[in-house]
Amino acid sequence: NRFAHCSVPANNRKQAQPAQLPYKSDQYTSHWRIAESLPVSAVINFLGPLLGIALGFDAVNSEQNKGTLSRMLSQPIHRDCIINAKFVAALIVIGIMLFVLAFGDGMWLIAIGIPPTAEEFWRIVFFIITSIFYVAFWLNLAILFSLRFRQAATSALASVAVWLFLVYSIP
C-alpha cells in the first residue's frame, strides 16, 4: 500500500472531486484561474497607456540630445516626415502586439473547444482596432511631450502625470 506511511488509513480518505468546468480540460491549473479572472480589456486599459508612453516619451528629444536629429534634418527630409515616421513605426509595433494577443486568445478558445462565432470574431476585431486607437492616443501624447521638453525624464513624467490625471481623477 503506497499510503501505509500516512496516519489516516487509505479507505477513510475523502476522494478529491475534480472542479466542475464549463469546458473540457485536463490541465486546469491555478495560473489559468488567475488569467481568466483578469479580462483582456482591463490589461489593455492599464498597460496600453504605459506601452504608448514607453514607446514615445523619448522619440524626438533623445535624438536631439544625441545630436542625430540635426544630422537627419540636414538631409532634404521634412521634420513632419520624421515625426510621422516615428509615430507610424511605433503604431505598427503596437498593432502587431495586439494582433498577436488577439490571435493567441482565439487559438486558446479553439484549443479548449469553444470556437468563436462570426459575431464574436468581429467583436474581437473591433476591440483590437479600438485598442490600437486608444494606445495611439497615448503614444501621440508622449511624442508631443517629447517634442516640447528637452529631457526624456520630463517628457515621461509629464506623460504619466496626464495619464494618472485623466484616468483616476475623471470617472
SSE map:
Elements (H helix, E strand, L loop, with lengths): L29 H8 L2 H17 L4 H6 L1 H6 L5 H33 L6 H31 L3 H17 L3
Helix pairs in contact: 2-5, 2-6, 2-7, 5-6, 6-7
Feature tags:
171 residues; mainly alpha; elongated; disordered N terminus
Identify the overall geometry.
elongated
Main sheet makeup? none
Number of helices: 7
Radius of gyration using CA atoms only: 25 Å
SSE pattern, N- to C-terminal: HHHHHHH
Ranges with pLDDT <50 over ≥5 residues?
Answer: 1-6
Range of helix content: 55-70%
Number of β-strand runs: 0
Oligomer: single chain
Tell me the β content. Answer: under 5%
> What is the SS-derived class?
mainly alpha
Task: Compute the average pLDDT.
Answer: 79
How far apart the termini lie comes to 62 Å
